[in-house]
Amino acid sequence: MVPNIGTLFNTLEVSIDESFVQQLFGEEIPTQYRSWVSVAIKQGGTTIPKPVEMVDPNYLASTCECSHLLDSLKGKEKFDPVFHSETLKEVMAEIRTKKADNLEIFLEKIESSIEKKGARILDYLKEKWTGTWFAATPNNLCGTALSAVEFRNKLRDRYGMKLLDSPSHCDGCNEQLSTTHALSCKVGGLIHVRHDESRVCLGCLACAGFKPSNVRDEPQINPCHDTRRKDERGKLIEPNTGVECEINSDRGDLLVHGFWDRNTDCIIDVHIVDVN
Ligand SMILES: [Zn+2]
């Protein structure tokens, strides 16, 4: 452990910025985004650290954690393993609280330095599970292996950046193309493919979780209520949930038998929406 060596990491910091991050994103990213990228995945970042800034806090943390061990090595105290692990635990808890407080201030600073859209993205990236895909181990069996282009596009989309090499206009309706448009266009957005993909994926999970014979697609929805209770448009309203149902003509996307309870059918309807 050596104090005040932050400047020695300048070259590393420069290569991370100018080479690694650029390769990852496919181009140079705005300076304020670099700080955003450096925070933990749970906080909306990608955990690519800034070594120069981390040197001093890490030095302080490790000297405090090992203070008893260091004193005993220098012959000032007799080594007590129980006291050492207690010191470790206490210091780690203290550092965790301090880190969380600092991170909150840091995120507020980032939020004020980026434009409104970026601040909104940062807000939802901090939601639980939004970055789980980022930390998932690539596995062909689980479908978590991404190609280089997929990874880059998802990463750029995570920070609200325009996707590289994407066409300028939508091939379905000729509107100007953006991620938001691509996700909501009903003509060129391949919405049916994305809908069917989600349904197939849910079906596979249901087959694995239950039995393949418990799962069926395109099930007819048979209302279990009195069909005379329809409104003037001929629709039946489920009194508890307010869900509308077309009598004898609605179909769900997937039926899973025994999902909530034994001998009951759960009908799932998949909707593709753009959260932005
Ligand atoms: Zn379109």
Helix content: 40-55%
Number of strands: 5
Morphology: extended
> Which segments are poorly predicted (pLDDT under 50) over 5 or more consecutive residues?
none
How many DSSP H or I helices?
A: 10
End-to-end separation in angstroms reads 47 Å
Oligomer category:
single chain
* Alpha carbon gyration radius: 27 Å
How is the largest sheet built, in terms of strand order?
Answer: 1-4-5
Write the topology of this structure.
Layout: H1 10-25, H2 31-38, H3 51-65, H4 67-73, H5 81-113, H6 116-125, H7 132-135, H8 148-158, H9 179-184, H10 191-209, E1 215-217, E2 235-237, E3 244-246, E4 254-257, E5 265-268
Antiparallel strand pairs: 1-4, 2-3, 4-5
Quick structural overview:
This protein has 276 residues and is mainly α.
